[in-house]
Write a structure and sequence with these properties.
about 375 residues, single chain, D-Maltodextrin-Binding Protein, domain 2, alpha/beta, five-stranded mixed sheet
């Protein structure tokens, strides 16, 4: 004989099932925040703010963030800050949700206790240059011994300089180091207050204007002395808004796909770069295809570079906080999800630890 479920118990089960369905639906339908704040160094010129670089610059210029969130009640605030350290300070003080940060400064922040995750590479192979006055007797890195050399300590260029000096048999102790930002260094070079300056592609502008001579560059030469940049998210934001974080990463993967397309080679230098810098950036990046520079993969090259930066920063006592697990800090989950959703799992060729493309396995 079949047992008959009492009416009250039946409706209680129905109510419980409905509640579970509603709860599951709510978990799936995350409400994005009213405002999402992304920050990075400003590339301003002539009073106009050109914000961002790499995948962040491409996505910002092409309106990909707004396109992804067009059906959400969400606005984007793009914050350009004057210096790289200011980006880290804004992230630490909860003024940013996401930040584009170079390898060294992001590691310094995490070591100092700023709860972050590294969720996507956004720029790879940033070159370094050494500039001197046109009439300087300095011909090579080896000639810097005892000379007044400017570069900004604690910035990404700092470790690039250390690696370049080491490759040429020198250390920081062999030069008279002057910690200056790029603009001040350029002025000091012109006035003769320093003998040489290390910096990025903007030094090509000084050369083009006849104000400097380039005596060394990592371009076409020293892959291990290039700098890498990543998208950093505050851990509390990623925990509270995992789906929103995944959508941000998906936007940048779409930007990477666009930037890797040879048909967009010239457009990559588009309006997000100041027109004053476009020729310099074009020359600076002609050593590698954009498919490698814009690759969002956590490939062996990217991981090895961050591990070496972590090691070197510890040796130099630049990481003054607690040790942390670098591989755990690098959260691949959002990228893996984006690649699968966009069916781009095999779109980019990974690079080995030395920056050489890894040959695809034959069938």
């Amino acid at each position: 004989m079949k047992s008959v479920l009492p009416v009250a118990a039946f409706w209680r089960r129905i109510a419980l099932a409905a509640a579970l369905i509603v709860g599951a639906t709510s978990a799936l339908a995350e409400t994005a925040p009213k405002e999402i704040r992304l920050g990075g160094p400003a590339l301003g010129v002539a009073g106009k703010d050109y914000w961002g670089w790499g995948l962040l610059g491409i996505a910002h210029a092409n309106g990909l963030f707004q396109e992804e969130f067009k059906n959400d009640d969400t606005t984007f605030k793009f914050i350009g800050l004057n210096t790289v350290p200011m980006v880290g300070e804004a992230l630490a003080s909860n003024q940013l949700d996401f930040a584009g940060q170079g390898d060294l400064i992001s590691l310094i922040g995490r070591s100092a206790g700023v709860k972050t995750r590294y969720i996507l590479p956004v720029s790879k192979f940033s070159n370094a240059y050494l500039a001197v006055k046109p009439d300087s007797p300095i011909k090579s890195v080896a000639d810097l011994k005892g000379k007044r050399v400017a570069y900004l300590k604690g910035n990404y260029i700092h470790l690039q300089v250390i690696r370049i000096l080491a490759a040429n048999g020198l250390s920081e102790r062999d030069v008279r180091q002057v910690s200056l930002d790029q603009a001040t260094s350029n002025t000091a070079l012109g006035t003769g207050d320093i003998d040489a300056v290390f910096g990025g592609a903007e030094l090509l502008l000084l050369r083009n204007n006849g104000a400097a001579r380039i005596v060394y560059t990592t371009r076409d030469r020293d892959t291990n002395a290039t700098a890498q940049t990543g998208l950093i998210v505050r851990d509390d934001f990623a925990s509270r808004y995992p789906q929103t974080t995944a959508r941000i990463v998906k936007v940048l993967v779409r930007a990477a796909q666009w930037g890797s397309d040879p048909a967009n080679k010239e457009a990559v230098f588009g309006p997000w770069w100041s027109f004053r810098l476009q020729d310099a950036i074009r020359e600076d990046t002609n050593d590698r295809p954009w498919s490698q520079r814009a690759s969002p993969l956590f490939d062996p090259f990217l991981v090895a570079q961050y591990h070496d930066t972590y090691r070197l920063a510890k040796e130099l006592k630049l990481l003054r906080g607690k040790d942390f697990d670098l591989d755990q800090w690098m959260d691949h989950s959002f990228l893996d999800r984006a690649l699968k959703e966009l069916q781009l799992e095999h779109h980019w060729q990974p690079l080995d630890a030395h920056g050489t493309p890894i040959a695809k396995a034959t069938e």
